[in-house]
Amino acid sequence: MNEPATRRPAWLRRLSIRRIRDRDAVIYGVLLLLAIAFPSAVLYATGSSALISQAADAGTYVLLAIGLNVVVGFAGLLDLGYAAFFAIGAYTFALFSSSQLGSSPLHQSFHLPFWLMIFAALVAAAGAGALLGFPTLRLRGDYLAIVTLGFGEIVPQLSYNLPQWTNGINAIGSIDRPSLPAWITGPWAGANNIAIIQPDVCRQLTNSTKFAPCFSFGYDPIAFYVLIVITIIVAVILVGNLYRSRLGRAWMAIREDEVAAAAMGINTVTTKLLAFAIGASFSGFAGAYYGASFGLVSPDDFLFLVSITVLVMVVLGGMGNIPGVIVGALVIYFVLNSFLPALPPAVESLANTVGLGSLNNSNGNWPGLAQEIQRINFLVYGLILVLMMLLRPQGIFPSRVREQELKHVAVQDDEAAVEASHSS
Amino acid sequence: MSQPAGTDNILELTNLSKRFGGLLAVDNVSLHIKRGEVFALIGPNGAGKTTLFNNVTGLFQPTSGSVVFDGRDITGSRPHTVARLGIARTFQNIRLFSYMSSLDNVRVGRHVRMHAKLWDSLLKLPAERREEDRVTEEAMDLLNFVGIAKQANHYARNLPYGQQRRLEIARALATDPKLLLLDEPAAGFTPQEKVELMRLVEKILDRGITVFLIEHDMKLVMGISQRIVVLDHGEKIAEGPPEEVRKDARVIEAYLGKSA
User: Fold this and answer.
1) Are the C-beta atoms of B16 and B66 separated by less than 8 Å?
2) pTM of the full predicted structure?
3) Cys bridge to B89: A31, A152, A204, B181, which one at CB 3.0-4.6 A?
4) Pick from B91, B98, B175: which is nearest to A265 by CB?
């Protein structure tokens, strides 16, 4: 029998349940505010838009992680070749929005508009996902992982080895930039006042040899940033809707017990196929965006490392939980692209300040502290990953798995309290 | 006892066999279940009872023979098709969706009677919202029906054993079955829980659902079933009303051994 004195007071229990339930809403709110304030803050603080450009690139990974989360987190299918769909999206866009196909056996280049091609890329990637999934999704667990791993290797190899189409290792360059009929600028983008601008000339939709005044995204990082933030918001809403739907429950049922799911009337093959295709479509979308923002698509951008990085983002962020996955993607991106590169000079100056400056000089086999840190960069990355997994094995912001357990404990507390009051 | 096949039979198995390599797990079994009855399948461990269930629900493909459900040949149909046609089941070793709430477990059972397509769910169209609300209500009703409505938001894995068995029944009922297959629903139950289970089975019958159950507890079987089939080593050794079956020499031999 529980002693009432040893239990937490009722208001505290209620508060903790509330806090967990509202946690995701708070994360979304904070992320949204940060996303809105970020460009102006960066421009104000640094005067350059380099960080905004990097944030837009991080957004690509957020989108990839949201998509992979559908496959791995919701449906429980281990996909180790996710970058292949990213590549398919990027190449779909790059081929049809550059002069590349002019020098291909087709001898006809296309300059289809970005806004059309980004959806074509989505469809192409989803189609590839369905095509790969159809024969392989009867496999379970490890076998599926191996097949997707193979697929993830095949796609970059194809782009290396079909140079007449993809330009191989030399990459497809000068890809068309997205454009809009007009754009709005204001103090947030460093302008003096709010204005509608059409500073560029772009190809017309109907006739690609005619040009008209417009706003071209060019190398404007703020425009790309706005585009990716809006895309992520839409993606979060759509995936959130799926999560709380008939289909989302079917995915989770398959993840939990495939035999029982089938016995409850769920067509496991088509349901898994949908997870695969929907996950792939996000990747395809992200691929087209990636091609447009860099203006260059090379097979090196879609290697196994990309698949693994996105998987790490999903697992570390909190598999199955969308806000967790977003935070995971941002954290890992930050570690990989800001923290690790900044580490060698930081250690070097630290050594200077604590009077160990002599370590910075190379001497015999010793390459100098900065150089040494540079060499063990990925060891540090590995250590960070191991540490994060040890500290939070469920991910930074885990899904309802933990939440439910906590809630269950709280309800048991309440029931025990009721029993106690009856018996006393 | 055997009758000619007619429309008042909800399930007819004809010469059903299932072979695993050298083992004939189900050996030429024919039986029929009438609409609205409680039909029990009993037999010693390893007699092939669960294998027979798996052949009916499409988890296994029968080696030979046919399964006719509600006048329709479903031999070798995929499990989800069988569920859609109206056969629901529970499992001998409980197979709930552990990391989903009780409510979600039952809502998954409702899946097959829902109509929302991908686009409806993606965009949360009004029709989809209405369907979700309706399904949530129906699922709560079912949880209430089996008596675990209070545990709606608990993870299935956190429920006590007896409630997990009840939840599995609620989940199966959510598919709107015409025939409910219960695989040892009272395994590990206390006498009190067994009585409650018998009441629940009666309530399920009142809903117009035929019940086909595997059970070890003879007292429970004798108490609720109209007819019994006894399997031993995959073979049907007896069929009939409980009082006949319990006196059958072969049944006594199968359960107690020859010398007894």
Assistant:
1) yes
2) 0.88
3) B181
4) B175
